[in-house]
Amino acid sequence: MMNTLKKNRVFREGTIGGYVAAGIDGVELFSSTKKSCPDCLTRKNRAGEMEYFHRSVVCMTVGKATACDPGAGNAEVEGRSGKG
Known about the structure:
Layout (H helix, E strand, L loop, with lengths): L1 H6 L14 E11 L8 E4 L5 E12 L23
Antiparallel strand pairs: 1-3, 2-3
């Protein structure tokens, strides 16, 4: 995983003693007893109902803030400054 992160230039700047700090966590993105898709995971809840859900693993750098401007839409993600 670290090689992929380096190749994709995730850690462009900002280190702590030469090391980049990152947090890895699992998150549940969606959960429902009514809506589902073919890729949903399933479990029975405490009421005995079938529950459909999606989970993901996320990695986030810890430390220096990024230069992303949430008001700029997707321009920064797409490589454009969104300014001017």
